[in-house]
Amino acid sequence: MAGKNYKGACAQVNRMQEYEIAEAVQKVKEITTAKFDATVDIAMKLGVDPRHADQVVRGTVMLPHGTGKTVSVLVICKEAKVEEAREAGADFVGFEEYIEKIQGGWTGVDVIVATPDVMGQLGKVAKILGPRGLMPNPKSGTVTMDVAKAVREVKAGKIEFRVDKAGNVHAPVGKVSFDSEKLVGNITSFIKEVVRLKPSAAKGQYVQGITVSSTMSPGVKVKKEKFVA
Length: 229
Prior knowledge:
Number of helices: 9
Largest sheet: 5 strands, mixed
Number of strands: 10
Helix content: 25-40%
Strand content: 15-25%
């Protein structure tokens, strides 16, 4: 059952109306009553059928103002790259010892970066990492010899997204405490990248809906026309 605060927040939002991004952000800020610094999320409903490989929308985007979250990064690499990874700010760096830890059930990081020469061994734990969204992937820039660049980008606000089975993509785009302008900038960057990745096989209207919300608020619809155009 919805709580009193959530019901109060719902009463302040016209669920049928689509707002300009700046208005939607301000509305989310106004209706968020959490006593912690809530995360602001975006969700986009896309006109794709993810059951077909040529309609899967997947990518990364650099949020210009970061996510507001401290991201922990594990770099799995051989000795030659260890110092480079540490200097770039990786929280954990190693090779076989971390593969063993993961086999034992440890997944205490947000992002894993790996060099191509260890991917064979990392395959041993793919069934553990895959469902958690932690398996390194060349398309997201997390399989690379340039581990320093990968670590710095993730720490600075680079996020990965992928369409789910229902045709939605969603991601964190900041914190409620962010200035409105920063949230607008992050949201705009995210939407533009998803639009840029429209599959050629997608038919009909691609962006069917955009909603922003905070951790404990109802969703606020965003006008999509200028992005669709």
